[in-house]
Amino acid sequence: MHVLTVLDHPNPHAFSAAAARRFMAGAEAAGHTTELADLHAEGFSPIWSMEDISSNGTTNLPPDLPEEHARIARADAICLVFPLYWWGMPAMMKGWVDRVWCWGWAYDQLDTPDASLQPPRSGLLLVPAGASSDEIDSTGQRAALDPAP
After folding, report:
1. Architecture of domain 2-145 in CATH?
2. Where is the stretch described as Disordered (predicted)?
3. Are strands 122-126 and 77-81 parallel, antiparallel or unpaired?
């Protein structure tokens, strides 16, 4: 299995970056191949632009998207690693999801509203939080992050 790990943290020495490296090392030790997309180190632009809008549904994509699509195409599984930031993902990761998983490549709700244009893949979120378990429980963050039954 080939695993794509997408990291969003500006500090390469942060806990999130260490978690991504340890996850990848574990995957490799289990016999899988890995690939890292370090959004900050690579200078990924999370800014959704008119270029993104005008390319939706066409092959005339912004120049940075084909490589992101190729990474995903190589992956059997995808792991997103980012710190919990205001109850969600930081802007860089949100921009990566918004721009890369674009209409016409990831989905086409006009022709088949319930179908993805991408094959199913395994996924994992590694989301460190800068709070204690008690604090996360008392504020409702854990309940908000738990998957639906």
Report:
1. 3-Layer(aba) Sandwich (3.40)
2. 129-149
3. parallel
Provide the terminal-to-terminal Cα distance of the chain, rounded to the nearest Å.
28
pLDDT per residue as tens digits for the range 61-94: 899 999 999 999 999 999 999 998 887 899 999 9
Q: What residue segments make up the domains of the chain, in order of their start?
A: 2-145
What is the distance between the alpha carbons of residues 68 and 86, in angstroms, rounded to a whole number? Answer: 26
Q: Are 39 and 8 in contact (CB under 8 A)?
A: yes
Residue position matching structure tokens 């008392």: 138
Task: Give the pTM.
Answer: 0.87
- Give the angle 78-100-126 at the CA atoms, nearest 5°: 30
Strand order in the sheet with 122-126: 33-38, 2-7, 77-81, 122-126
Crossing angle (nearest 10°) for helices 91-100 and 65-74: 90
| 140: DSSP letter | T
